[in-house]
Design goal:
alpha+beta, 5-stranded mixed barrel, 3-stranded antiparallel beta sheet, 21% strand, elongated, binds zinc ion
Length: 244
């Protein structure tokens, strides 16, 4: 049977049967790929640690006709992010990134941008990057790459600069205090500078974030309001993060 291969990031795994795993991969060029790794839970199996969440791998697989799941014949580890996940808060954050990618990537919306985003944020965290800032960075680019980030700099109705503003009920823009139909989700004034920085810079490594923690938290609240609206529910992993 012909074997295919792809560079991919492992998003998550779940158990099936006594010895097997279902693995969800995010491929650099092919988007989401779901497969069965037979015998992956046997001691000393051939997959080793290559199926740990967020591992970067080269996966070898073959497809059977009319099956949603491919069969994984092998998996070589390229880069591991296992160590940063020993910190529970980082592990939860990474499962949140994985959930967002799995939820939105089936639309095949510029997957390579998302792939490079996830990989670069992972590397930034590994270098010692600050967690909240890395999270805000990911959320902003994630929305942008999916075409879901509206202009948050000026009022959608009157065009005046927002300082601060409020998200519109359809999440297609923000409004100044005079025009806002609803004052529920605030768009902080600092988000304009934040988004400008994010668009110009790679994910931060070990250097200190260029924004105060309160500004980052306020930006994240606005970005998450957009994500929850488009996902039509709160991400499960975000709920875990909040209740921690
Ligand atoms: Zn206005």
């Amino acid at each position: 049977m012909p074997t295919d291969q792809a560079e991919a990031i492992v998003l998550r795994t779940s158990n099936i049967g006594d010895q097997d795993k279902i693995v969800v991969f995010f491929c650099r060029e092919k988007g989401i790929l779901r497969g069965v790794a037979k015998g992956a839970r046997k001691f000393g199996n051939r997959f080793g640690s290559s199926l740990e969440p967020l591992s970067v791998v080269r996966v070898f697989y073959y497809e059977k006709e009319r099956r949603d799941l491919v069969t994984i014949s092998g998996c070589d580890l390229i880069e591991s992010f296992f160590e940063i996940q020993t910190e529970p808060a980082t592990a939860f954050l990474l499962s949140y990134f994985a959930e967002l990618i799995e939820e939105f990537a089936p639309t095949r919306a510029r997957e390579e941008v998302l792939y490079r985003l996830l990989l670069s944020v992972l590397r930034g965290l590994k270098e010692g990057g600050e967690r909240e800032f890395a999270a805000a960075y990911f959320e902003a680019w994630f929305l942008q790459a999916n075409g879901l980030l509206p202009d948050l700099a000026v009022c959608r109705k009157c065009g005046q600069p927002l300082a601060p503003g409020w998200l519109g009920p359809k999440r297609d823009g923000a409004y100044c205090p005079d025009c806002a139909p609803l004052k529920k989700d605030e768009v902080p004034a600092a988000i304009r500078e934040f988004l400008r920085w994010v668009r110009k810079n790679p994910p931060p490594g070990a250097c200190a974030p260029p924004f105060a923690s309160g500004e980052i938290a306020a930006a994240r609240r606005a970005l998450q309001a957009l994500i929850v609206y488009h996902m039509e529910r709160e991400p499960r992993s975000l709920h875990c993060l909040k209740t921690k």
